Amino acid sequence: MSEIKVSIIMPVYKVEEYVGKAIESIQAQTMKEWEFLIVDDGTPDRSGEICDAYAAKDDRIHVIHKENGGAPSARNLAIDMAKGEYMYFLDSDDWAEPTMLEDMYNLAKRDQAQLVVAGFYIDTYYEKDKYLTDNYVVEDAVYPNKEAFRKNAYKLFDKNLLYTPWNKLYESKYIMENNLRFPTTFWDDFPFNVSIVRNVERVTVTSKQYYHFLRARSESETTAYRPGMYEKREEEHGWMVNLYKEWKVMDENSMEMIARRYVERFIGCVENITNPKCEMSASEKRKEIKQMMKNPRLKQMLKLAKPRSSYMKLMVLPLKWNSTLLIYWEANVITLVKTKNTKLFTKLKVGR
User: Fold this and answer.
1) Secondary structure (3-state) at 230
2) Using CB atoms within 10 A as the burial measure, which of 19, 103, 121, 188 is most buried?
3) 62: nearest Cα among 12, 119, 130
4) DSSP letter string over 3-44?
């Protein structure tokens, strides 16, 4: 095999309906100098067998079978095995456009970038073959040093481009020399990327979109209840604040982004409590929400945040009025729309 330009890393668990399309989207890449490290994370379905079948016909695909330990452990195992000049992380129930690897690799080489960030699509299915697409994208940019990137990072955070691993190409040397790995926690993507961007020097951003994140599975974030979500979001907010303190970046745009991000996620945490799969009683839910609203951070962030859409301006009113009952009923309405009319909910979310 010629020199490996990109190591694609993909954990696999209970995705037998989707994993074939994910693999084929890599096989269809215009760049051919890649290795595909697929980690079967102890999946109980046929996903591992499906991957083995593809590997048997393509010697660039390598399947590693391990006991279940979660996506972070699967990715970290593959990182230690990767031979590519760059690394790319794919989720096993999504797919990528054919020119993704070639385009991003060429940008990385052109700018000697340690990180390349691209736009992406979120395809939300409201029926089996019908979906709405939400576009996440910013303008092309080249940041040749830490100062330039840090000053402009708020634009990327604002469009959700710095949270996930699958819209990025990572320089392997940068990951290995700094001993960067995915932490063994749920929602591991964000802390991994925080560790990446903390000291990154050369970042290239492309306005092109390649990756299709699919919201189609019954346990996707549009329907699932997440115990401990509020505590996790508070922890993430702390990471974000600490990152900007380390960077010594305190300009108005960056601080407003952090505040708006906090408020939006706070509303999401309230809605999570009103999810039908949350087993708390109605009175327990209201009590929990009331306790959350006592957090002094909320009042501080509400002063700084400037909601962009009419939808979000309406959503924050009960918080500004400090009305537990109103925010409780508002969250119930959001939950009802989210679970009963995914199409409408997706339209409301776009541009919030």
Assistant:
1) helix
2) 19
3) 12
4) PP-EEEEEEESS-TTTHHHHHHHHHT-S---EEEEEEEES-S
Helix axes 310-320, 252-273, angle to 10 degrees: 70
Q: How far apart are CA 48 and CA 68, in angstroms?
A: 12
Residues near 284 by beta carbon (within 8 Å), at least 6 away in sequence? none
CA-based nearest residue to 222, from 311, 131, 291, 307: 131
Nearest Cα neighbor of 335 from 259, 282, 257 is: 282
Sign of dihedral through CA atoms 159, 15, 98, 104? positive
Nearest CA among 238, 297, 241 for reference residue 266? 297
The H or E element that residue 73 is part of is helix 71-81
Q: How many helices (H) and strands (E) does the chain have?
A: 14, 10
* Average pLDDT per consecutive 10 residues, the chain (352 residues; last block may be shorter): 88 97 98 98 97 98 97 97 98 97 98 98 82 92 98 97 97 98 90 97 98 69 78 96 98 98 95 91 95 96 93 91 94 78 61 52
Distance, C-alpha 46 to centroid of its chain: 26
> Among candidates 208, 214, 178, which has minimal Cα distance to 195?
178
Rounded Cα distance, 14 and 148, in Å = 41
| Angle of the 310-320 helix axis to the 324-340 helix axis, nearest 10 | 150
- Record the pTM: 0.92
CA 185 to chain CA centroid, nearest Å: 14
* CB 289 within 8 Å of CB 327: yes
Given a contact cutoff of 8 angstroms between Cβ atoms, the answer to whether 25 and 188 are in contact is: no
Q: Which residue spans within 6-156 are E strands per DSSP?
A: 6-12, 34-41, 61-66, 86-89, 95-96, 115-127, 130-136, 141-143
